Amino acid sequence: MSSTDAPRRRRADAARNAERIMRTARAAFAEAGGGITLEEIAQRAGVGLATLYRHFPSKERLVREVVEELMREEIEPAITRALAERDPLRGMSVVLETVLALASGQPGILATARDAGALTADLAPRFIEPLTRLMHNAQSAGQVRADLEPDDLMQLLDMLLSTLRPAAGPGEGWRRPLVLLLDALRPDGATPLPPVTPPAPC
Fold it and tell me: Which of 24, 31, 43, 62 is the most buried (most CB within 10 A)?
């Protein structure tokens, strides 16, 4: 055995342990929310608690890595597909459908991420900025009312997320409210919105 074989094997074992912990944590947060302990995650993953802490020194760090993986594997590919759509309103719908499907199918993850402060200022723009671009494109195409602001859209998305129930099958309950929301964004017959209220001074 060469002198490099043992370090390579240790690195491979470490990578497998980290991946196992991540998969287990993602499933555990989706199922049980943030109430699950790191000890239970380590037990489910079949690793020692010390091994878990070597890879993820805090629960907040583990939650952040789970959210980062969701962004990389689910949200960002949807954003790429949405930006490639010729119909910008359909592009907006692709992104919103992806977020709502994830939140409905894995209800504990969003609550866990919020509670742990994992939806940080450096992560949010990776979702908000392309969604805002899609909104502006839809406005330019006359598909979305011109007085809609990005904050309006995010508040409407928050409203939908707050009413979600866990998915019980192929007929996701969020689809009807999403269709109603998208119809409400159209300019035909829209009542002019009140002026934007500036935030209160700190």
Answer: 62
Amino acid at 39: E
Residues of the domain holding 21: 8-57
Structure tokens at 185: 């964004």
CB 102 within 8 A of CB 70: yes
Asked if 168 and 101 sit in the same domain, the reply is yes
Three-class SS of residue 72? helix
Which run of H or of E encompasses 26? Answer: helix 5-32
165 and 70 housed in the same domain: yes
Q: What is the pLDDT of residues 138-159, one digit of tens each?
A: 999 999 999 999 999 999 998 8
Res. 192: pLDDT tops 70:
yes
Place of tokens 């959210």: 67
Quick check: pTM over 0.85? no
Type of residue numbered 168? A
Residues 93 and 31 in one domain: no
Q: What is the CA radius of gyration of the chain?
A: 21
